[in-house]
Write a structure and sequence with these properties.
Layout (H helix, E strand, L loop, with lengths): L1 E3 L3 E8 L2 E10 L8 H4 L31 E4 L10 E7 L3 E8 L4 E8 L6 E10 L4 E13 L5 E6 L7 E6 L4 E6 L8 E8 L10 E6 L5 E7 L5 E8 L5 E3 L4 E3 L3 E6 L2 H17 L10 E3 L1 H4 L5 H13 L4 E4 L29 H9 L3 E6 L3 E2 L4 H5 L19 E2 L5 H17 L2 E6 L17 H18 L4 E4 L9 H4 L4 E3 L6 H11 L8 E6 L12 H8 L3 E5 L7 H21 L3 E8 L2 E7 L5 E8 L21 E5 L12 H7 L3 E4 H6 L11 E9 L2
Parallel strand pairs: 20-21, 20-29, 21-22, 22-25, 25-26, 26-27, 27-28, 28-29
Antiparallel strand pairs: 1-2, 2-3, 4-9, 5-6, 6-7, 7-8, 8-18, 8-19, 9-16, 9-17, 10-11, 10-13, 12-15, 13-14, 14-19, 15-16, 23-24, 30-31, 31-32, 32-35, 33-34, 33-35
Helix pairs in contact: 10-11, 11-12
Bound molecules: (2R,3S,4R,5S)-2-(hydroxymethyl)piperidine-3,4,5-triol (DGJ).
Length: 700
């Protein structure tokens, strides 16, 4: 059995004792391979006499597995082991449906595996049906994928609020790595992504295997070193004790596990994930991503309608295309302690509602966007005063506040209906093109009225609310925000059109954050905003050019009060927005490329599918150790073509530049792609915490 992608072959061997296992996940293989010899393990002493099943697509307890199982379940403490037989495989177009049965434990299993032929991302999900009495389900993974023994180095993506997507490297010589998240959202600290690489792999070198779980709640991803040195990675939802019981005949389907392979390093892995997301996941692909002004950092809770209208006018004048009114518009919302959950405009701030501001914005030719946080309420809100039973809680325990708010139990039909009605009214009555959908706290005592844990049901109900609004208002885009990038997984991305990557808008920090996030998030959905200096999260001061150059490579936005800009900043910002719009077709559809950081200098870029155009961000993070910058190698170009390299406006040459470097700001330099990729050229030197954007156009 096999599936073939563009550059990947997935070869499966049927096991004598049940489910198939992956015997090859990597480079394309020639046709007609007989898999039986590949799985015939030499007998070692002191092991089970028959074939052990530690590497199947769905490893279970009681089959010779001594590592993490995909299933933990029982019928009143019986049937805690599982062995699936009666395996049938139904091949489709790039898909395999594997069905199996355990007559002893009375369980039926369906595994859906797919590797679309044009790409390199496979998907795997499990559906378990209970054919016995009530089944307590403690864990159900989407399945397991196996990387070869060469996958020695592991990378996780974590940090904390304002510091998310930090790539952390470790090795796993033996044992297990467990990435567990219990925050009730994908989280800032344990993003559901695990990348394994060959030793010393870099941005464009070495082999990489990536596993992502598309789920916005609790998760468990494990990596186990197997007896032959290979790496088995399982991913699934993490269930709280007693959270899921399957009645006789009932089923549960897992979220999808997405797994990509690349022999072109970490950036190659990003390219595989981006291509899949663009083709199969994102809705509205190809639509122009409007340059946004978000009011949060320029206004916070201090809403003044007249000033906001003036901000909108100023925003339109610099080229902004979407004006988003952030938190602070609801009744009594002068800070984070009150008003959350009441989705009507504050009559003190908006005596005639939001209509006048929204129409002012649309009258200027911009889209109007509105911030909401539908899953939350302050105790000091009509929503919770009138319905205290609406919050998730555990009877007898204190409700733990976080940012002065509680989480609404959206799985209660009445609560869901009230929240839906409020959002529906806003969308019906106002010309809203975009909702910034925030979620500013973790779930702590998340109990349902019947006392059960409600983490799983909350994600399902939130998805249902998003799906319903998207179906009723298909032109309204939704941004997934959770205090920045706390909910940026592919489960939510299947129903949203943008991610607020991080609350940290410091350009230096953003280089790291965007690099990590870009492993699975393509640039066109990665919110990247130019904010004020000094930066509100770090206090660092950066030039407008540095802030803009870094933000240019995502979905560009502005997060400051445009009325506070000096005249020259106004003009420069308008210049950067114009540059983004000019490069946008390339930036939002091209191939992501990157280089390893060298002497403090980070490089990433985007190359058009036909290699005719490219743009690179060259950023000097720390002061270089060496006197001269190392030659700049630009990855991804057509080696046989000639490229004209320029430093486009509004970037300005500094006085001490050499004559060659000054030409970059004028007519540009013409060099062959092969030279640029292999030998490089001397870039203009950069101060620490500054950057250059290079534009390349193929001449011949
Ligand atoms: C957290 C978000 O990440 C911010 O951008 C902003 O919307 C605030 N919440 C508002 O409370």
């Amino acid at each position: 059995m096999r599936l073939d992608g563009a550059r990947t072959t997935l070869l499966l061997a049927m096991r004598s004792d049940g489910l198939p296992e992956i015997v090859h996940w990597g480079a394309c293989l020639p046709p007609g391979i007989e898999t039986a010899p590949l799985r015939d393990r030499a007998r070692a002493r002191n092991l089970p006499d028959d074939d052990t099943a530690e590497a199947s697509l769905f490893p279970t307890i009681g089959t010779g597995l001594f590592r993490t199982p995909a299933l933990a379940a029982h019928h009143a403490v019986q049937d805690w082991s599982a062995a699936f037989t009666d395996v049938a495989v139904e091949p489709g177009d790039g898909t395999l449906r594997i069905t199996a049965h355990d007559p002893v434990a009375r369980l039926r299993l369906v595994l859906d595996l797919a590797l679309p032929p044009e790409g390199d991302v496979m998907t795997l999900r499990a559906t378990l049906t209970n054919e016995g009495e009530a089944l307590t389900l403690d864990h159900l993974a989407a399945g397991a994928v196996r990387a070869p023994p060469g996958a020695t180095s592991l990378r996780t993506y974590g940090g904390h609020w304002g510091h998310e997507f930090t790539e952390i490297e470790s090795t796993l010589p033996d044992g297990s790595l467990v990435l567990e998240n219990r925050r009730g959202r994908a989280s800032h600290d344990r993003f559901p992504l695990l990348v394994a690489t060959s030793p010393g792999a870099g941005e464009e070198t070495g082999t990489a295997w990536g596993v992502h779980l598309g789920w916005s709640g609790n998760h468990r991803i494990t990596a186990d070193r197997l007896a032959d040195g290979s790496l088995l990675v399982l991913a699934g939802e993490l269930l709280m004790p007693g959270e899921v019981t399957l009645a006789p005949g009932e089923s549960l389907s897992t979220p999808s596990l997405y797994a990509a392979w690349s022999d072109a390093g970490l950036a190659g892995l990003s390219r595989a994930f981006h291509a899949y997301a663009r083709r199969h996941l994102l809705t509205l692909p190809g639509a122009v991503r409007p340059v946004t002004l978000n009011t949060w950092e320029g206004t916070y809770f201090d809403h003044d309608q007249a000033r906001l209208m003036a901000q909108a006018t100023a925003a339109a004048a610099i080229g902004i295309e979407r004006f988003v009114l952030d938190d602070g518009w609801m009744p009594g919302r002068i800070g984070p302690r009150a008003g959350l959950g009441d989705w009507t405009p504050d009559p003190a701030k908006y005596p005639d509602g939001l209509g006048p501001l929204a129409r002012h914005v649309t009258g200027l030719g911009m889209q109007f966007g509105l911030w909401v946080e539908p899953e939350m309420a302050n105790p000091d809100s009509a929503a919770l005063r009138d319905h205290p039973e609406a919050a998730l809680a555990v009877a007898g325990r204190p409700q733990r506040l976080s940012r002065h708010q509680l989480v609404l139990d959206l799985a209660q039909p009445a609560v869901w209906a009230r929240v839906h009605a409020a959002l529906d009214t806003l969308l019906r009555e106002l010309p809203i093109a975009y909702l910034k959908w925030d979620m500013n706290r973790d779930l702590i005592t998340a109990g349902a009225p019947d006392g059960r844990p409600a983490y799983h049901a909350q994600v399902v109900a939130t998805y249902a609310l998003m799906d319903r609004l998207r179906s009723d208002y298909p032109d309204v885009e939704i941004e997934s925000c959770a205090s920045g990038g706390g909910r940026a997984d592919w489960g939510v991305l299947a129903r949203t059109q943008r991610v607020w990557t991080s609350d940290c808008t410091d350009a230096l920090e953003r280089l790291r954050i965007q690099r990590g996030a870009s492993r699975v998030l393509p640039p066109e959905i990665m919110g990247a905003h130019i904010s004020a200096s000094p930066n509100h999260q770090t206090g660092r001061r950066h030039t407008l050019a540095f802030r803009a150059a870094v933000a240019l490579f995502g979905h560009l936005g502005v997060e400051l009060d445009p009325l506070a800009l000096a005249a020259e900043e106004h003009a420069e910002l308008a210049g950067w927005i114009a540059l983004h719009k000019r490069l946008r077709p390339l930036l939002h559809a091209g191939r992501h490329v990157a280089a390893d950081t060298l002497d403090g200098r980070a490089l990433s870029g985007v190359v058009a599918a036909d290699s005719a155009r490219a743009a690179y961000l060259v950023a000097q993070q720390a002061a270089p150790m060496r006197a001269y910058p190392a030659p700049l190698l630009l990855p991804g170009l057509d080696a046989a073509a000639q490229y004209r390299i320029t430093v486009p406006a509004p970037q300005q040459p500094v006085a001490e530049l050499s004559a060659t470097h000054r030409t970059l700001f004028a007519d540009g330099l013409v060099l062959p792609g092969g030279i640029l990729g292999q030998a490089g050229f001397s870039p203009p030197p950069l101060w620490p915490e500054t950057a250059t954007v290079l534009e390349l156009v193929r001449e011949s």
